[in-house]
Amino acid sequence: MKRPRTVGKILELAKDKSLHGVQPEVAIELFQCMKLIRFVEEAIADRYSEQKMRCPTHLSIGQEAVAAGVCLALNPDDQVFGTHRSHAHYIAKGGNIKAMIAEIYGKATGCSSGKGGSMHLVDLSVGFMGSTSIVGNTIPVAVGAAMANRLHKNGRVCCVFFGDAAVEEGVFHESANFAVLKKLPVLFVCENNLYSVYSPLKVRQPEGREIWKFAAGYGMPSAHGDGNDALEVFEKIQTALEHIRRGDGPFFLEFATYRWREHCGPNFDNDLGYRTEEEYLSWKERDPIALLEAQLLPRGAISQADIEEMERAIQAEVDEAFDFAERSPFPDPDEAFVGLYRE
Ligand SMILES: Cc1ncc(C[n+]2csc(CCOP(=O)(O)OP(=O)(O)O)c2C)c(N)n1
Description:
The chain is of the alpha/beta class and 343 residues long. The protein has eleven helices and eight strands.
């Protein structure tokens, strides 16, 4: 789909250390992409209580920089696999927003024909290969797709996103071992938002363990970074992609970030007791969008008027997607079993 393009006059800035060597044009694309993800998810949250979206929705508000930084570094024909929390990954890879919102509304025009909901997003036309609700289960599928890419010699990289809890699934370890053994072109991206539903890392993994370090134990290069800094994410992914595209095998990256809202649904849940309001506020102060804005505005890379114009264009695109979803028909009941696996 066509994205609202970067607006405003972009000043040609010299490579600036504080922009991580990222060109201002790219930094603005990252900013725009994060805004689009945020606007879509805020709109879902605002309208969720209308009871028209009847599937569970896992929002990634607060985590936008990882999706944007990774997906904008990939080529259009590279592939991405997601998770149960994949609105951001789908949008950042260029997935059709109308088809995504229609899917969440359970409509026939949805990207899974209205049968999958928020956790079953797919847009093959932009290389977004799919997302599912089973924690960790896209990891071996992505490794298999990478194997196919290798056999077809098509040069594509296959990227798989997963949360910190997915590395506790055995299938992650099998997949990592196999990807290293076969030197497959896979980019493993772990979004560490500290929690698996209500369980913090400290009740799930031994004290002091760092995910990126044990991934390195499988023999692949592994690194970690600030998942709220889109420029840092973008820069680290470039390094990883150079390694993978050289044919040197997989790369693992862990990014620290934080989901602002409840595990599943539109509300805030800092009063439940598993995490504190202070912790949430400390991460909110490091809002990935505000952080990038604070780097772009003073340098004149973008103006306040540009941002307002960008926001108007994005809001119009989001409103159009919701109108499309509301106007679309529900699937034909006779088609209930079409496209489903049956014995
Ligand atoms: C195999 C499996 N086990 C348990 C669940 C229930 N479950 C759904 S989401 C989730 C937490 C996943 O945490 P993480 O992978 O860190 O991603 P996050 O939700 O934090 O983005 C769990 C345990 C599941 N869907 N699949």
